[in-house]
Amino acid sequence: MFVSDCLGVSPDGHLTIGGCDTVALAAKYGTPAYVMDEGNIRQSCRQFKASIDEYYDGNGLVLYASKAFSCKEIYRVVASEGLGADVVSGGELYTALKAGFPANRIYFHGNNKTREELVMALDAGVHRIVVDNLTELAVLDKLAQEKGKVVDILFRIKPGIDAHTHAFIRTGQIDSKFGLALENGEAMEAVREALSFKNVNLAGLHCHIGSQIHEIEPFELAADVMLTFIKKIFDETGFLVKELNLGGGFGIKYTDEDRPQKYTAYMQRVSTVVKKKAAQFGLPVPFVLIEPGRSIVAPAGITLYTVGAVKEIAGVRNYVSIDGGMVDNPRYALYKSSYEVLVANRAADPKDYVATIAGRCCESGDLIQENAQIQKPAPGDIVAVLATGAYNYSMASNYNRIPRPPVVFVKDGESRVVVKRESFEDLVQNDV
Whole-angstrom Cα distance, residue 119 to residue 197? Predict the structure, then answer.
């Protein structure tokens, strides 16, 4: 019935999530509010872990791509499920460490890490630093030398693959700010340079071709390209790359139009390519990592809003104004992202009304969805936007000095706050 299996309808027709009535949640915690089903998150973690264990014979690790949703509690949850963590900033690293996440399961990404961030990672004993460019490589080697350490690295490689996704979230082609290209030889140059340094150890390679990808073929091609490069490195230098991070980007179902592949199908097909190419080249199968983020948290989340004004402009469109908007969900403004929207207090009723869901910011482009098929709303109704667990809280802002909503975790009919709602005082606490 819904895009996520953690959702349902109560006997009185209210939308439920994780066994909790969303109308009751809105009354208890206020709106806007992010609500996430912890049980659904844990189920996704377990599916990914079981799949990589099965198809790579226990020789792999799932890293949660925490840029999708980062707070202390999510790091605690994924750590307890046996996953590692992918962080991309000093802030994400700090949050993970404050949550007690083991540093030996953290991989630190980013295309322009600062010296301060690299020092933080070295001091914390981060397991791997994913190096983006030659400048970073030289800086990292010098910093490690100053600290008397040898740091394990992966190189981020651009495999030259154009995934079928939005231009803003394609990352694997040569024209990308991320990584080292194969086509022009800079990737091999970086490998040779790393092998000449004394304070970095080249542990492996990394690639990431994009986000919200529904096809498996681009991932298969990326695996083929990366194994071929590993063979090239071995032939030209004698060095054997032992670790391969194939990134993330697995698509999810935002609307009924989306047709994402099952995790097991991805793992089975890509692992077949990895094993086949390794056997063809006479090389051992590398230790394989993947980085799901959106696919772990997005389906588990919804955002609840309260309807304010309803404007019906005859012959033009209907505007339904909510008490949030692009400040808590900028994805429509950025990508024209599609969502399923419904009136939570009449979830069982037919969707017989077409509306543009408008946010409260002083900005014409502050929309959550256009031409959305929903139940006919009235002021005071609760609107739910589904599959918002990824890239909503993590991309939220204080535009117009609007405080950010809380994050509420639900599980088996119980709810708890894991991120408090911001107050007006929070907004000014750093002002001088």
Answer: 18
